[in-house]
Amino acid sequence: MYTSNLVQKLFILISCSLLVQARSLLDLDFGIEFSQRENVEFSPALDLQKRQADADTGHRQGGYTTWTEAESEAKKLIGMMTLDEKVNMTVGIDQEFCTGMTGSVPRLGIPSFCLSDGPTGISVTYNVSQFASPITLAATWSPQLASQHGLALGQEFHDSGVNFIFAPVAGGPLGRSPLAGRFWESLGADEYLTGVLGSQIVKALQEDANVVACTKHFIGYEQESDRNMNTLLPQTQKPYSSDIDDFTMHQLYMWSFAETARAGTGQVMCSYNRVNGTQQCQNDASLNGLLKHELNFRGNVVSDYGAAYSNEEATNNGLDLLMPGEGQFGIYPNYRGAHGEKLKDAVNSGKVKIERIDDIVKRILTPILRFQYTSKFQNFITPKIHNAYGIVGTPVSNDLGSKVQRDHFKVIRKIGSESITMVKNERNVLPLSKAKLNEKKATIAILGSDAHGSTDRGKSCNPNNECDDILYDQGTQTDGQGSAFAYPPYIINPLDAIKSYVKANAPQVTIQSSRGKHFSISTADRASRAVDLARKADVAIVFGNARGKETEDRSNLTLREHADDLIKRVAAVNKQTIVVLHTPGPVLVEEWIDHPNVTSVLFAYYPGQESGASLTPVLFGDESPSGRLPFVIGKKLDDWLPNSISDPHLTIHPRIPFSEGILIDWKWFDAKGIKPRYPFGHGLSYASFSYSSFEVHKTFLPDKETEFTTNEAFEPHQNVQGSSLYDTVLEASVTVKNAGKMKASEVVQLYISFPKDSTGMTASHLLRGFDKKEIGAGESVKFTFSIRRKDISIWDTVHQRWRIPSGEFTFFTGPQGAADWDKKLQARVIF
């Protein structure tokens, strides 16, 4: 979701001002903030006493215990509503507090419901947390952390009076292109990884935090170029069409949405693009056919902002809630859309049936009743979001916004630390030894503009609200740009965090940086100063970043602000050069990765407000890096799918054939025999792990999900019992020993290859299980995986059902991700 060009510019202006203010405030308060927050743990439990306390103070307790009960109550309310009241609930109204609000029915006590972005925190407000980005969470490969993230995120939305949270991103983008502007909003470039993490987030948001999850962006939304929202009068070019065949749609793009549907997501957002020639928010085949029928999705479909292109066609074809409705932030009207007054006219003229209107209202009310309130809407929370639009250059007041952070910095920091992915560590330079550095009275040079906060003390925006885009971005990158961006209450930048850590743990060590006092220092001047510092330092840590941005795809996979050149120049004069990267997705590292003085490389992604605090424990060995790449790193852009970003320019009806099928990201490399620089799932540790006793055997456990089941058809198999596509039919197990000298977490990954004659299966291997556990030094832990019928099935396009192919399945596990298959442990099962 995003706004018109005018709002987009306004968004940048505000972000500019708020970021530099937050960073300036941090420079004043950092020492206290950081020192008080050492060695903390996040408690994810919401016990019954806590829930009762919430109720006593006006917070939601949760609604009815089952969807059926909630739906029954919704129908009772609908039976008492007039047509005017019904259609009033189907369209967005004033956005005074929230990203969007629904119409209300005061006569029945039904309030306006608040909808708000996004996956990194509450957007467009103050005094809320800036969480780690979804791609950062994906790098943890931890279902447990996904659940903790969902709970903490949901608590802030809950306490701010939000009803629907626009999260998680379960696909759109899924990772078809490494250049996708919104890659950083995804949960990794793999449908299985995304499905597991996304379903955990949905459950925590709804069942524990009592906010309704909006899973997005459905479906095939894989680039920003030519997405062309319908926010102004009809333009000359329609949005691009993602032309996806039936097999690819089921086997790849629907997979993660099926998982979040089974988790009970109460809302799904339809995307800007067209699918197979039809605008997605009025696409009967995908909304009614795939989503509402096949996946049995029982919540409501909301349009992304400006994605509705029709009148009654959208309503009849599956769109339930039109946003922004009568105008976003009062700046532009939505010239199309059959909701509100137009929807009433459509009903009266017979173009839309009254039963469809009842269905829409039922789909809007039921998730609210299921997860938040009873039909009396007791303890309703008025939204407490302070709309920051238009407030540029104003000091951030503690009286504004929600003040809802609780102790969420703990889980933000934990996700940041566990996401850090060490892809290289020659000569075991990492972890840095506090004792040796202190004894030597060593000097550490912290280099690169990404290491520190903004240097202009809040002067990037002038009194005329004109901001320099380059100045806005100067400083460490903690989040991407766009509607998912959340204003941080502060940012703990890497430079200040390292200074604080060293002062407390190795006081004889000197920290120097190339940070300038004013923006008048040119890039060349900073680089020269950095090289001089590196030449004299015992250790040089170079920080670099790349930017991910809604509305704009990346033009290349290089680092920004000449960071690649800086890394090479520093490595030429310092034998212990460590590189830390904050990126939204893949970047190319070939210019410098093989330099013998580049000893260690860490991917830190977009870690949110706790950036530096999550990095220092890994740098200095308090924690072992345990992140794994949630995407592949190639050696050149041409290694990836060719023309993965299509820009047809003035083509009236641009179409993009997804002819690669299911072969996106790492699966493309794997099937085409392209050797990556670092494979999907790769990540090093300070410990060493050995795998043994790998086995896979047939078993049967019935599907435990009874409330949110799907209608996905499957072909019975003579050797497999059960009545659900999600019954467990195989169990895999492997024992992992930590042969190192410190406790560390290992991510075990389970891959599968299908029988050779499996019709339609072009992927050489697929991910079908993963888990993360901490293992003590010298200890062994057994990992067990449940493999479901769907996990070993292929979509049969002829008979329109899932089918287990006959033949031999091979399972693989072992360290270092999706590569070196012949070196992994293997097990075989025949069906």
Automatic annotation (TrEMBL):
Major enzyme class: hydrolase
Statement: the UniProt record of this protein carries the keyword Signal: yes
GO biological process: glucan catabolic process
Pathway(s) annotated for this protein in UniProt: Glycan metabolism; cellulose degradation
Gene3D superfamilies linked to this entry: Glycoside hydrolase family 3 C-terminal domain, Glycoside hydrolase, family 3, N-terminal domain, Immunoglobulins
Domain Fibronectin type III-like: residue ranges: 746-817
Main location group: secreted
GO-annotated cellular components: extracellular region
Record's protein name: Probable beta-glucosidase G
Organism: Meira miltonrushii
